[in-house]
Write a structure and sequence with these properties.
Two copies of one chain form a homodimer. Chain A is α/β, with parallel strands linked by helices. The first copy, chain A, contains eleven helices and twelve strands.
């Protein structure tokens, strides 16, 4: 066999379709473009600099993130999207000899990362209402919690994460891809200075509207950041390119624009949830830039036939539900109009 | 311990310094900027598109590379620099149960990739003249050959690679980062349609002058490409960002510019090698965009004190040699002037 046993047997993560010509409500992208400062950074970029390798540790971008997050740049690790940051974290923080934990219904990339790096894992079943059963986690050997969780859109209070960190001996990764859209919880970043087992992962793909540039980061104590660097430098010396660094540093500096666009998404989200509930549809409370509603594969297909892409997971417990990204008001009006037609 | 045993024990690859204010001849970057078409692609890029994820399999860029390489797009895998492509290849193509092979003096990232993915390896000693001893390789269980080799700058004929492929049961990776600068050998790409064990890896970092955008690719048979995709999709769904895809697709289309800049580097290389040999300095024949010459750590330090960065490796067999990237004629004149002063 000319390929590895792992490549021949692993079941990769399946990302949402990147089809064109649809109203795309399937991959939780931001319906609004990135900050004008990002556009300016791109237009002003000196292409001749591309002949040189980038900063291996993204020093400029880490400084910009540090300022925005109120932490030290030495407590930040930057990677090629939060997926890469998470993948490297599985290798950097978890071992093959003891199982880590994550929920049974959560970001379905976690079990794939675990298999890639031969990390055993136990999945902890969410409660019937899809809330997180903290008492059923051990937390001792390492865990990954998405907060808010995907695809459920639900969040846990930061105090529960503090209690979990108290019990952790290995790393507790909190994946905050959607945290900027949360009303009922807040970021665990401020806890990372208290708990050296806590690692918070964030992304430029959602609230910053920069999914296409591939950038994510981790905030944690120095020992965890050093481990991330050791694994990164054993994989790819320069995962963040020069354009990406310039664009994201510009975007992260524009707090007003970010706040404004987050609020717009949250306003649209409230309205869509109310409209659906008024129609008798079960929708979860959402702390993310998507909603999780009742709806099966056939509804997904009907939406698709009407040029609207939403996400359906053919998985236990959630195959009767749909995940729908919050688009612009106009896109969601069309979503509701089509829903009324096809339901 | 809050980090993994692997992170605590692995010795990462050390990339060349990215210091500013020096004549940088230490990381084999191109002294010339990328094609004007790359600049145009960057300037014309619609920043609003960055809110959307990129093509997961870099379809547009693969089509552009396919045209330039004269292969089918389905035989191409694209990644975030050839380092990422190589790292993923170790996981996709090699197993933990049998040792792979590479030279004792070659790209020092190979043993690090192997340790990251728990692939055992044997290093095969180069001959005394640093030529590759093909008869001492087994090739049966997988191997990695850099052609031209770094840091030696020497190459092997493509017929030797064909003979090696004949013997391979697992993958034979040919790392052609420097192939565009070779006079004494040629690319093994055309052999990939004959041998389903052969995987050729190339980069945009050297001949294209795009080290700062992070892009590399593999050309191989479908089974190997499928394995690469399976591992990539278990690590990061979208390793190549939208700007990178647009810039590299534009650059790869400009064959005239590429040819011209390669010729300029080769001309400068010939001149510098002649000048050094005229001074009685031992320099290897070079098929790369760098030269490998006698010179120890103290010479490296003297160059640095004169604002010229070259590369010295504190490693067995090569600690009495320096690797010097070929810069512009003006940079190499300064290199020679300083050399005459400090030697």
């Amino acid at each position: 066999m000319n390929v590895s046993k792992k490549a021949a047997s692993i079941v990769p993560y399946t990302a949402g379709e990147q089809a064109e010509g649809y109203i795309k409500l399937n991959t939780n992208e931001n319906p609004y473009p990135p900050s004008p400062r990002a556009a300016e950074a791109l237009r002003g970029f000196d292409v001749d600099k591309l002949r040189l390798y980038p900063s291996p540790d993204s020093a400029g971008l880490r400084a910009a993130i540090a300022k925005a997050e109120g932490v030290d740049a030495d407590n930040i690790f930057v990677g090629n999207g939060s997926d890469e940051v998470l993948a490297l974290a599985f290798a950097a923080l978890f071992d093959a000899d003891e199982p880590i934990e994550f929920a049974d219904v959560t970001y379905s990339f976690y079990p794939v990362f675990a298999r890639l790096f031969d990390i055993p894992y136990n999945t902890v079943p969410l409660n019937d209402d899809f809330s997180l059963p903290f008492d059923k986690f051990n937390f001792y050997n390492g865990a990954v919690i998405a907060n808010p969780n995907a695809p459920t859109s639900l969040s846990v209070p930061v105090d529960a994460l503090r209690a979990a960190a108290e019990r952790s001996r290995k790393a507790l990764i909190v994946d905050e891809a959607y945290i900027d859209f949360a009303d009922r919880t807040e970021s665990a970043v401020r806890l990372t200075s208290e708990y050296d087992t806590l690692a918070v992962v964030k992304t430029f793909s959602k609230s910053y509207g920069l999914a296409g540039i591939r950038c994510g980061y981790m905030i944690a104590g120095r020992k965890i950041i050093d481990a991330m660097r050791a694994i990164k430098d054993s994989f790819n010396s320069y995962p963040v390119d020069r354009v990406c660094e310039a664009v994201c540093a510009a975007a992260v500096s524009d707090r007003e624009y970010l706040k404004d666009k987050i609020q717009k998404v949250k306003n649209t989200r409230s309205r869509v949830i109310s409209e659906l509930r008024a129609r008798g549809v079960a929708v979860f409370d959402s702390d993310a830039n998507f909603i999780f509603m009742e709806g099966d594969k056939s509804l997904y297909e009907k939406f698709k036939s009407q040029n609207i892409l939403v996400r359906h997971f053919d998985k236990p417990r959630i195959s009767d539900k749909l995940r729908v990204s919050v688009g612009t008001d106009a896109q969601m009006d069309e979503f509701l109009r089509v829903f009324d037609k096809i339901r």
